[in-house]
Amino acid sequence: MDETIAEFIKRTILKIPMNELTTILKAWDFLSENQLQTVNFRQRKESVVQHLIHLCEEKHASISDAAQLDIIYMQFHQHQKVWDVFQMSKGPGEDVDLFDMKQFKNSFKKILQRALKNVTVSFRETEENAVWIRIAWGTQYTKPNQYKPTYVVYYSQTPYAFTSSSMLRRNTPLLGQELEATGKIYLQEEIILDITEMKKACN
């Protein structure tokens, strides 16, 4: 595990409140139960973080593993984001099945990486028939910035996709183009949603 990944995981863990840390780490499911039992969560947070980073180094955590941890953190704290909601529909002659999760994921990633070489795309499916997508943007000359990602939440049983407002505003039109290429979209409104409200909006 290189220093970039270690720093990414460290920053993510530091964001997590101590009373949520074990819950989020268990949901991450990267470190085993036995490994987590070796951590004294009553120590100062800095010591806890150092121990967790050491465990991640032993398991050779990848950028994908680190991105999954960040997605889980955001699932716990999605109320802190402002979300744009898109409604997608198939146009005449289009063969994309908006309700096929596998096809949606494959199409989304392929189209985005074709449009922008330096981009990291990570997926995490949930029990609510939703997939969380994390996009770390780069440029033609720079690696993806893992600290200013965009999140997309797509519900497979509905035509709705929710996108977090990107700090890198130049990427907003590109993201819209990717969703449009995956399925015809209409921007509905900008709203603040938590996961419960997202479910209501999809019903």
TrEMBL record:
Coiled coil: none annotated. It comes from Pan troglodytes (Chimpanzee). GO terms for biological process: CENP-A containing chromatin assembly; chromosome segregation. This is Centromere protein N. InterPro entries: CENP-NAC/CAD_complex, Chl4/mis15/CENP-N. The keyword Nucleus applies. GO terms for cellular component: chromosome, centromeric region; nucleus. Keywords: Centromere, Chromosome, Nucleus. Pfam families: CENP-N. It is found in: Chromosome, Centromere; Nucleus. Belongs to the CENP-N/CHL4 family. The keyword Ion transport does not apply.
